[in-house]
Task: inverse folding
């Protein structure tokens, strides 16, 4: 991964529909060399896919909840992961160190829909000991592209001006 790959990734994250010709022009490579680099990034799994960013509320999913799940026993992780992946309203989930065991993002139409999902599906997932729900009031920072470079090791991050 060199500086050119990072520039290509930054542009693809910002403009996923950019043409290969425009991408090559912006990074100052020939189209064939740029295409080769993009294909190598895809083959290596660095680029995992392409998608549209959709406004959840505009398509009927205006209610978002963060659910913290704690499992009753460590051997339930695999069954829990499998069952959780089958719930369409779960749009993201992370396994955490310590307690709680999971942070789960859930979208539904409204509070009533979430209550129904909670009572009929979520509390019945394998190995669940407890669930705590927090309603998202607003997105202070929307999901965004990764920074162009990782933070410096052992040093403080660069200062940001207000």
Result:
């Amino acid at each position: 991964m060199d500086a050119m790959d990072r520039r290509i990734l930054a542009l693809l994250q910002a403009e996923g529909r950019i043409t290969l010709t425009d991408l090559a022009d912006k990074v100052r490579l020939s189209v064939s060399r740029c295409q080769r680099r993009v294909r190598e990034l895809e083959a290596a799994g660095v680029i995992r896919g392409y998608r549209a960013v959709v406004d959840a509320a505009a398509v009927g999913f205006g209610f978002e909840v963060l659910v913290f799940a704690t499992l009753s026993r460590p051997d339930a992780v695999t069954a829990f992961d499998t069952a959780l992946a089958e719930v369409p309203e779960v749009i993201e989930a992370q396994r955490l160190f310590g307690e709680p065991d999971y942070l789960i993002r859930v979208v539904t139409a409204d509070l009533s829909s979430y209550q129904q999902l909670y009572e009929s599906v979520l509390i019945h997932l394998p190995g669940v000991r407890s669930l705590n729900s927090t309603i998202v009031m607003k997105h202070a920072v929307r999901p965004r592209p990764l920074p162009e470079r990782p933070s410096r090791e052992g040093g403080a991050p660069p200062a940001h001006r207000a």
Summary: Strands lie at 63-71, 90-95, 102-108, 128-135. The chain has a mean pLDDT of 92.
